[in-house]
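INFO  loader      accepted 1 record
INFO  loader      residues=125
INFO  predictor   begin
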Amino acid sequence: MADIAKLVEELSKLTVLEAAELATALEEEWGVSAAAAVAVAGPAAGGDAGGAAEEKDEFDVVLTGDGGKKIQVIKEVRAITGLGLGDAKALVEGAPKPLKEGASKAEAEEIKTKIEAAGGTVELK
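INFO  predictor   done
INFO  writer      dumping tokens
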């Protein structure tokens, strides 16, 4: 049990991008995804189990540009992701790059609003 606590402690130190890379690596290694676990659990109580098309509830937030305001966008990327200055600068300069993968609709909209307020452009996929 102590090993699990130690593992949780180490995982909580990961940045958003590192956590996304870890999730991708685990999906590739074991051939599963978090979405598959949710599908196995079934719909939530009171959920529509019918054939109706579901609204997308997970989004990838992709930085598409800095809008000529690179410094402001870098500051906002750092605040959102927890990246260091060099990593945030590389992410902004390398756009289009994902900022957050698998974000809820509310979280994705919040990130988009913050980046656009700083002058950048974001695409939700």
